[in-house]
Each structure stands twice: as structure tokens, then as C-alpha cells.
Design goal:
The chain has helices at residues 32-41, 80-93, 97-107, 130-151, 162-169, 189-216, 221-225, 232-242, 278-291, 336-347, 380-391, 394-405, and strands at 45-46, 54-58, 69-72, 110-117, 173-174, 182-188, 248-253, 271-273, 295-307, 315-323, 329-334, 352-359, 366-375. Helix 1 packs antiparallel against helix 3 (97-107) and helix 8 (232-242) runs antiparallel to helix 9 (278-291). It folds into three domains: 27-95, Metal Transport, Frataxin, Chain A, CATH 3.30.920; 110-291, no CATH class; 295-405, OB fold (Dihydrolipoamide Acetyltransferase, E2P), CATH 2.40.50. It starts with 31 loop residues before the first helix and ends in a 6-residue tail after the last helix. By secondary structure, it is of the alpha+beta class. A hairpin with a 7-residue loop joins strand 9 (295-307) and strand 10 (315-323). The longest helix has 28 residues, at 189-216. The strands form three sheets. The chain has a five-stranded antiparallel sheet, with helices on both faces. The protein has a five-stranded mixed β-barrel with strand order 9-10-11-13-12. It has a three-stranded antiparallel sheet with strand order 1-2-3. Residues 1-30 are annotated as: Disordered.
Amino acid sequence: MTHRPLDGTVRPVRPHPETHWNRPPEPGTVDPAVLAALLRRHGWQRRGGATGRYGRWTPPGPAATGTSLLVPESRAFPDSDDLLGEALQALARSAAPSAREVLVGLAVPSDEIRWWRDVPDGPAGTAPWTADEQLRTAARQMLLAGALATRARAGYHGARHRRAATALLGHVLVGPATDGRALTAFVPADPGRALAVRLHQALHAVREAIDYQRATGRTDAFDGAVAAGASRELTEALVALVRGTEGARIAVAWAPAAGVPADCAANAGPLEFSPGDLTALREAGARYLRAEPSVPVRITGAVVRLRRTGPRGEGSVRLRVLTGADIPYVRVALAEDDYRIAGQAHLVGLPVTVRGRLESRGGFRRLGEAGEVTPVQVDEAERDRLMKSLQETAEITAFFEETCGGDDRPD
């Protein structure tokens, strides 16, 4: 479990690189070898050029007519920067969709994750309105599963680590979807390389586990896949990607500027998943949910809500977690004495510590077998900060409504 300090100190967030899309990168910041690798990745063809000096590149598809770039092979010649500048300007003016992707890869060195869905065609090659939304939703679920796996290896994450994983997704850039059939995410190598590596490895592990189940009828290979980053969250993302299609593919291409990570293939090719894999994926997700154990924890949190059915007896509280578990909130059922202590601590603006087991059922949002509730002494400044924070939430409003009504009055 990760811990956050009670003093409220927050680690500075890395800002997004300042990228000006109205003009190409400066030639002096571009490595010719990286530009050539990106052009090749995005389907551009080298069609001659002076050997050892520069290459002539043309875009894929109809845009190739009348368009070409002269890209130096190195900076060994005096006109290299001029050629790079002209090539970058031509990319910025190009109508080829791949030109923008090349510019993104240059501006923010990124690992590229691509998804393709084989969606049945509608009239005249159209696609359902919802296809684009389904693709983006599935892709986001998959990126989140990869980000969660960078925090911990678990068959089921639930509410754990969501805050840090979601923050990591804030660095990811996304390209336009193509009729709900194709989408590319650009994951900056700094700080997102770990996400791309973990997702790459987890997808391969899931693909191998499905093949093993089909060959042997056994599902135990999914247990070993957890070590590679597989989880219920990932299998659900794959189900969302494949459902309603004739098949789907996923590929990861590494940022040329950052090189190929250790233990990863340079050109592994896309992984394919079909509707025939859905049963195995759903069974694996259910297996992960059943197998993930509850976790013993000692949580420190601020009481934001109290509830019980009468003036006496046991009750439940909701804590905003400060330390002890990487979740934002947790619900706790307490005996009468512990409930009274929690209510008094809330009224005087003190957090409490409580022992229990964070239950996997319900997504690790509930603490079972809870007890040993103890107020935590903090200085006046910290107490004022906690009280102000509580007063700014909707939970405190609900608390006062309940207490004034007499149903949930703490002793």
C-alpha cells in the first residue's frame, strides 16, 4: 500500500511538453534517423535519394502523388538543417493523415499503441454512430489497466491505485478515430514508458493464456499472466474492444528516440483477438475477481459521513483515506463504542486510525472486521485544514442533514 503524508504535501506534477501544433518542430531538435524511422512506421516509402546523404520519401496512398520529402541521413553535411526544415514544413502542410502522426512522434517522443476493430460495414461503407465511442471507451479501459499494473500486480485492482493510474493517463495523447475502426494513442516515453511496457507484456500473456485454454481446456495460465500485468480490468477492456466486431488487433510500437525496452520485441506485430476469445476472457475476469484476497490494513482517514438506524448500537462511517491504502474513500461498519469515537473525532476535526481487512468484494471500497478506532492527534493548522476540506465537500452537507434529522446522531 502507498501512503500519503498527513501534512498534505503533494508531489509536483510533470507538466505536458509545450507543443505548438501551428508550426513544426525546430530542425535543430530533430534527429534525422528518428524522422526516417517514424516515416517508415507510418507507411512512407523511400524512393531513392543520394546514398549516404539523403533519402526521398513519399507518403502512403493517394497523397503520394506530387509529394515527397528529402530527409538527410545524418548531420554530416552542411545542408542537413535546411533539408530537415523543408521536410518538416512539408509534413506540416501535407494532407496525409500519417504526416500529423509523424509530427506528434517528433514533438513528444512516444510509444504508439494502436487499436483496430473489424466493424461490419453499413450502407456505402458507413459504420454505426456508436462504433467510435465503443473504440475510445475500450482503449481508455485498456490504458487504465496498463497504468494500474505499473502500480501493483493484482488479478483485480478495484478502487485501488486509481488516482495514480488516472494521473498517468493525463500524459497520453490521442489521435482521431477512423470510423470507429482504428485509433492511436501516443504514450510519452517519459513518463509513460512503464505503462506501454506493462500493457505490451500483459496483452501477450493474455493471448498466450487464451491459446493455452483452447488447447488444454485449463485456465490456470491466466494465474501466471498476473505477474505480467494481466487483470480483470484488462480482460474487461478486451471484451469491450472485441464485442460487436468480427475481430480486433492491438499493436505497440516503441519510440525510436527512446529505443526498444529490455525484454520487449522490436517488431512483435499486432496481437489479434476474435469473438471466439470472449468466453475465455469473461471466465478469466470472473476467476480474477474470485481469487483476489482481502488485504489487512491500518487506515488513517477523516470521517466524512456517519450513519446508523437509531441513537444506539452499531453504525457505519465513510472515511476519506489519508494513509494506509491507495483508495480515495472507504466504508467501515463499526461497533457502538468505535462508532461513538469516530463521531466525536469528526466533530472536533481529528482523523482516526482503524484496523480491518480491505475487502475485495465490492472493489476494495469496504473495510471488514474493523476495530481499534483511535483519534489521531494533529496540530491546530492541520486540524483547521481538515475541517475546511470537509466543509467543502458534499458529504459534510449530507452529514448535517442526517444529524439534524435525528436518525444518525453520534453520541
